[in-house]
Amino acid sequence: MDKKISRRSKRPYWLLAVAVVLSAGLWWFSKSQANASVQLQLPISSVSTAVVQPQPLQESIALRATVLPQHSVFLDVIEGGRVEQRLVEQGSYVEQGQPLVQLTNTQLQLDLISREAQVTEQMNFLRNTQMTIETNRLNLQRDVLDIEFRIATLTRHLQQSEPLVATGVLAQEHLNNLTEELHYQQSRLQLTHERQQQEETIRQLQLQQLSESVEMLSRNLDFARQNVQNLLVRAPISGYLSEFNVEVGESRSPGSRLGQIDQPDQYKLVASVDEFYLGRIQLGMTARVTLQQQPLKLQVSRIDSRVVNNQFQLEFVLPEQLQAKRGQSVNLTLQLDDQQSPVLALARGPFLSDGGGHFVYVLEPTTATARKQAVQLGRQSAQLVEVRQGLREGDIVITSGYREFQQADIIQLQR
C-alpha cells in the first residue's frame, strides 16, 4: 500500500526572515538616533561672543576679601558665675583695664573666706614654731654662757688653791675635786658647742622650710583673691569691643567667650582661595585692590594651608593710615605671574563656570550655527583665559552662560 507524503509548510522560514529584517531595522534606527546631534534654536540676542586672538596675559585670580582686625584679643571667662552687671555696650571703644562685666560667684567667695581662715591658722602655727626654735637657741646659748662662767671660776679657784695645797693649808683632795670638776665642765662645754652647731644647722633648715611654707600659703591666698577679682572682667587692651554677647542674669561657665577687642588702625584682608591654587601661591605675591577709592598694591603676608570646604585662606596686611571698617568686603586681584606674556586668549565669561572649561560653542557666522567643541584652557586673568587646544585664532566663541543649552551639540541662532 502506497504511503501518502505530506508537503512541509514554508511559513516558519518566512517568519524567521521577517524577524531578521525587523531586528536589522531596529539596530540601524537606534544607531542613527545615537549618532544624531541634539539641536536647539535660540535668538541671537540671547548670547554674547568673543574672538580668539593673541593677547598679552598675566595670570591672576579674582578674590573676595573681608576686612578684619590685624590683632584681636578674646575675652574669655576665667572663673564662671552669674552676670550681675554689663558695664559697656558692643562696639564701644574701651581703655586697657576698664571694667566690662561684673560676675558673681557665691561659692568662690565662700572658698576665699575658708582659705583665708586656713592660711591665718597655718601662719600662726608657723610663727609659734619659729618662736619655739628661737627660744631653744637662746636657752642653748645661755647654757654655754653658764658653762664658760663655771669654767672660768674653777680655773681661778684652782690657781688660787695650788699654792695653798703646796704649803699644806688646803688638802690635796680639795685640789683634786677642783681639777675633776674643771675637766667635767670643759667636756660639757665641748658637747654643748657640738649640740649648738647641730641645732644651728637644723634651725637654718627649719627656718628655710617655714619661710617657703609661708610664701606658698601667701601665694595660695593671693590666687584665691585673684579668682574673686577676676569676677570683674576688665579690658586687657585698648580697642573696639566687638561680638560682646552678654546679658544680665545669664550664667557663664569657665572658659566661655564673652567677645573680643580689636586693636584700632591695624587691619588686614582675609580671602578664601580654591585649593587648586595651594601649590602655586607663595608669600610676597602681589595683589591689587581698591579700598576707600584708593588703589593699593598689597602682598601676601600669611598662607593658612588648612583646607576647609575645598578652600584655604590668604592674608594681606593693610597700611596703618588706611581707614577701614571691620567686616567690609572688597574685590582684589592676585597676580600669579611676575609679568605679561603673549598667548592665544579668549575673553572670560559665564561659560567657564557652566562648562567647567572643558568645551565651548564655536559660532559659524555664515550659517549662524554654533557647534560644541572640546577645548583645553590654561592660565587665567581677570579678563582673559589662555587657549591651549581646541580653538584657532579668529574663532568666534559664545562666552555667555551655557546652563540652558549645555546638552545641545548644535545651536541654530535666529535673528
UniProtKB/TrEMBL annotation:
<keyword id="KW-1133">Transmembrane helix</keyword>
<keyword id="KW-0175">Coiled coil</keyword>
<feature type="coiled-coil region">
    <location>
        <begin position="188"/>
        <end position="234"/>
    </location>
</feature>
<keyword id="KW-0472">Membrane</keyword>
<protein>
    <submittedName>
        <fullName>HlyD family efflux transporter periplasmic adaptor subunit</fullName>
    </submittedName>
</protein>
<feature type="transmembrane region" description="Helical">
    <location>
        <begin position="12"/>
        <end position="30"/>
    </location>
</feature>
<keyword id="KW-0812">Transmembrane</keyword>
